[in-house]
Specification:
The complex is a heterodimer of chains A (298) and B (228).
Chain A lengths: L1 H18 L1 H38 L2 E5 L5 H12 L4 E7 L1 H12 L20 E6 L5 H9 L4 E6 L3 H41 L1 H9 L4 H41 L9 H31 L3
Antiparallel strand pairs in A: 1-3, 1-4, 2-3
Chain B lengths: L1 E9 L5 E10 L4 E5 L6 H8 L7 E6 L2 E2 L6 H8 L1 E4 L11 H11 L4 H14 L15 H14 L4 E5 L7 H16 L3 E5 L3 H7 L2 E6 L2 E6 L9
Parallel strand pairs in B: 3-8, 3-9, 6-7, 7-8
Antiparallel strand pairs in B: 1-2, 1-4, 4-5, 9-10
The chains are: A alpha+beta (298), B alpha/beta (228).
Amino acid sequence: MFFRNLPFFIVESWKGLFRNGWMSLASIGVVAITLLLLGLFVLINLNVQNWTQAIKEEVEIAVYVEEEATEAEKNQLENSMKNNPDIKKVIYVSGEDAMDRLSQQWGGQADIVEGYDNPQDNPLLSSFEVQAEDPEEVPRLARELEGLTGVDEVIYGEGVVEDLFAFTNVLKLAVMGVMAAMAVTATFLISHTIRLTVMLRRKEITIMKYVGATNWFIRWPFVLEGINLGILGTVLPLAIIYFAYQEALVWVEENLYFLPPMVPLYDALHETGLLVVPLGVALGVMGSIFSLGKYLKV
Amino acid sequence: MIEAANLTMKYPDGNIALRDVNFQINRGEFVFLVGPSGAGKSTIFKLLTRELIPASGTLKVFGRSVAHLKGKQVSLLRRNIGVIFQDFRLIEDRTVYNNIEFAMRAGGSSRKEIKKRVPQLLSLVGLKEKAKSKVQELSGGEQQRVGIARAISNRPALIMADEPTGNLDPQTSLEIINLLKDINFKGTTLLVATHDQQIVDRLQKRVCYLEDGQLVGDKEKGAYLRVL
C-alpha cells in the first residue's frame, strides 16, 4: 500500500512545499542556520581535537635535578622513573647538553652564552625529559615526580592542555544552547508550514476521509513535505561548509603555520554530513508530526 | 444492512439530535429520509460513517456496530459507503478524471484498476467527453454526476446522498435522481436525504420521516408529505 502510492505521496509532498512558498523558505532557512551552526561546531571540534591530540603527544615533563645531587642520587632517580609504569620514556640531559642545545638554538648569537660554557660556570641544571604513557596524566605525574629526592623543580606545558579542553567545553555548551533554541524554532516553523498545507487541503482531506483513506494515506504526503523541508535545509549548510572549509584550510596553512595540520576536507565533510543530514530529516519529521496529530484525526 | 435500535445522539452542548430512533434498511432498498432542517438527517449520516458515535442505543452497518470500529476498520467501513453531497465537494482545480482517480487511490485501488474503471464510471454518468475538463468548468448537474461517479467508484454496498439535488434546477434534479435510481436498480442500497417534494412524490419509494430527532413515520411507497 505504501510503496504503491509512494509516487503519489512524493508528488503531493512537493506540491505542498511550493504552495506555501514563503513559509517553506522560512522553514528551510531556519533549518539551514541550525544545521550550519552544528556543522561549524563539528568542524571546530574536530580540529581542536586534532590539535589537542598533537599537542598532547608533544607534552613532556622536565624534571630538574638539584645542583648538589650526587651521581648516585641521579642514578637512583633515573631508575625509579624508568620503573614507573606511567612513564614511557626518560632521557637524561646534563647541564652541558642543555648548554649545547641553548647555544645551538641561539645560532649566530651563540656568543651570548659565551663565558658560561665552562662547566663550573654553567648555570643550567641537569634534567630528565620524561614522556608520560597517557598525556592526560601529565599533571598528576608531574606532582608525583616533584616529591622524589634530588628533584629541584618539575615543569611541563602547564595550562596549555587544560586551556584547550576548557575552550572546547565552553564552545560545546554555547553551541548546544544556541542549537537547541534553533531546533525548537525550526520544528515550530516546519510544523506551521505543514499546518498551512493541511489547511489549504482541508477539503481534499475531508474527501479522502469519506472515501475511506487510511490515516497514514492522508499523513504520508505531509510527513514527506516535512522531510523535504529538512533535507533542503541541509543543502545550504553543507555547500557553505564545503567552500568555506577549503578557504579555511588555505588560510590556516598560510597564517597559522605553527599549528598542526587540520582535518582534511573530505573527512571533515563526511563527519559533518553524518550529523547534519539525519538531524535535518529528524527536524522535518518532528515538525510534521507536531502539525498532524491534531488536524488529521479521522 | 442498516439496523438502528433505540439510537440516541446527544451533542456535547446538550442538544439532543436523535432520540430512540429505530429502523432497518435492507440490501437493495431505496429510502428517502425527509423532514425539516435540524430533524436529525445529517446526524444519521454522520453516525453511519462513524464521524459521530451514538450516545446510546446501537447502530449496525453491514452487521457490525459502528461504535466499536477503530482505526483501519473505520476506513474500510467508509470504502463501503459512497457519499454524495449537496455541494458536490469536488476538487475544483483538478480534472474530472483526477477527482475520481484521487478517490479511488485513497480508497486503496491499484493504478491498473483505476485506469480501467474511471472511463467506465464516466460513461455510466454520461461524462465520457469531459474526462479532461476541470471541475470548475462544469455545470452543477455535471458536477453532481462527477460526485456520483466518485461515490460509486469504490463499489460501495451503500450510497448515502445528502440533498443531492439541493443546488440543481428541477430538470437536472430529475436526471440526477434517475441516475441514482439506475444505480439502485443494479443492487446498491440508497439512502437519500432530501427536501425535494417533487422527486419523492414521483419515485414512490420508501420514505422515513424525521421530526425533532424522532422517527415519526416510515412508509413504503410514501409521499413527501406525511399522511397519518
